[in-house]
Amino acid sequence: MSLSFLDLPIVLAPMGGASTLELVAAVSNAGGFGILPCAYSTPEQITTQVSQLRRATRRPFGVNLFVESRPSVVDAHDVARAHDRLRAYREELGIVHTPQPAVPPDHYRGQIDAVLKARPDVFTFTFGIPDRDTLTRFRDLGIFTIGTATTVDEAVALADAGVDGLFAQGSEAGAHRGTFLAPVEASLIGTLALVPQVVDATHLPVFAAGGIGDGRAVAAVLALGAVAAAIGTSFLLAAESGIAVAYRNALRSKRSTDTVLTRAFSGRTARGMANRLTQELRDPDDIAPYPFQNAITRDIRTAAGEQGRSDFLSLWAGQAAKLAKEAPAADIVAELMQEAQARAECVTETLLASSSLLGRKNRQYELRKDPIRAIVFRRPST
Ligand SMILES: Cc1cc2nc3c(=O)[nH]c(=O)nc-3n(C[C@H](O)[C@H](O)[C@H](O)COP(=O)(O)O)c2cc1C
After folding, report:
1. 205, 233, 330, 337: which could form a disulfide with 165 (CB 3.0–4.6 Å)?
2. Distance from the CA of 241 to the center of ligand 1, in angstroms?
């Protein structure tokens, strides 16, 4: 499968609840590659959103889903207890505490069918691997598939399943960990360590994700062998981003440097800015498994957004949040590219200067420029 959908090595990583159609279109129109998050959309909404996006951009874009990962058996008492644990927060927010916990929608199959029908250039997913039949259907339609790996083992499992590319999601990344093999605690590898190992282990195109806050980090991940930088948090303050005002204000504040891993909002581990809910909901017995916790906290998160209260919002952010800039998305893309190019030239000059100091005889590596990978280091063939 070809990477023809990729012009600039900048990808707007999928961001459910944050990316708008306008943001996705703006990044694609600026020469980057926008990905529409559809995990929280119904099949009908996916159909509508993709046709709206096609009206907003003629350039390629991707669509993202969560692979269905609900536990096969769920103890209703666990969910009821987690639901009751939220009663005091509902009272504080002035919303009704329903006797029965909300039930998460089960429309994964319908979502897959809707994406296949919509035929985006790229389909990306996280939380696991779709079954063989599903991946074959995407391949038969010529849709490029990208799975999410947080460890080398996950990358190899995805490669064995036949995906066309990989997000290598380092532990710095904002929001949910894509982890699906080992426990999350054993899958927290930084982007700098993860990307080159995934490149070596799979030989697939790798899209580096996690903590890429500006053009310096874009140049860095290209040097590690990634074909592009997949950036989430640094687009959260874009003019076209859809986050609530209280979330935007938290990102602008000093708090943005204080991110934690939490299961409080969805039942799956995710990185976000610390707040009252991440502090108070830490006991595993108070939290239902994903996606049940996600369903039972939804009314609280919605009310908090409406009331401008950041203490109960899921303030997803990666560890480089402080570097996010407030600007139209097209300007963010342009600045990322300019900064990456300047940094790559600077690195090239430094390394060329040191290699001439070492002398040609001792030079082990040759440096060359590559149209996609800004700089590539190669052993001479002789
Ligand atoms: C607000 C937010 C929402 C996210 N939602 C999704 C999602 O719906 N699907 C997904 O695969 N990844 C999601 N992610 C993870 C990103 O795709 C990506 O891995 C991450 O943002 C990269 O790290 P960074 O935030 O440090 O740039 C989300 C990230 C953020 C910040």
Report:
1. 205
2. 13
Cα(287) to centroid(ligand 1), Å: 22
Does ligand 1 lie within 6 Å of residue 13's CB atom? Answer: yes
Residue 210 CA to ligand 1 center (angstroms) comes to: 8
Question: What's the confidence (pLDDT) of residue 351?
Answer: 86
pLDDT band per the 50, 70, 90 thresholds, residue 70: confident
| Residue 322: count of CB within 10 angstroms of its CB | 13
pLDDT digits (tens, 9 = 90+) for 318-329: 999 999 999 999
Q: Ligand 1, residues 24, 68, 176, 241: which to mutate, most atoms within 8 A of Cβ?
A: 176
Counting Cα atoms < 13 Å in the Cβ hemisphere of 351 gives 18
Among 29, 51, 58, 49, smallest CA distance to 238 is for: 29
Going by CA atoms, what residue is nearest to atom 2 of ligand 1? 15
Whether 40 has a pLDDT exceeding 50, the answer reads yes
Q: Whose CA is nearest to atom 5 of ligand 1?
A: 15
CA dist 300 → 7, 22, 249, 287 (Å): 41, 26, 19, 14
Closest residue to atom 6 of ligand 1, CA basis: 15
Q: Which domains does the chain have, with CATH numbers?
A: 10-70+106-242+327-378 (3.20.20.70), 72-105+257-320 (no CATH)
The model carries a pTM of 0.94
CA of 141 to the centre of ligand 1 (A): 26
List, in sequence order, every residue forming a beta bridge with 272; answer none if it has no partner.
Answer: 260, 316
| Tens digits of residue pLDDT in 82-128 | 999 999 999 999 999 998 999 899 899 999 999 999 999 999 999 99
Residue 203: its pLDDT value, please?
A: 87
Q: Does residue 246 have a pLDDT over 60?
A: yes
Q: How far is the CA of 126 from the centre of ligand 1 (A)?
A: 10
**CB of 170 closer than 6 angstroms to any ligand 1 atom:** no
Instruction: Give tens-digit pLDDT for 332-360.
Output: 999 999 999 999 999 988 888 877 777 65
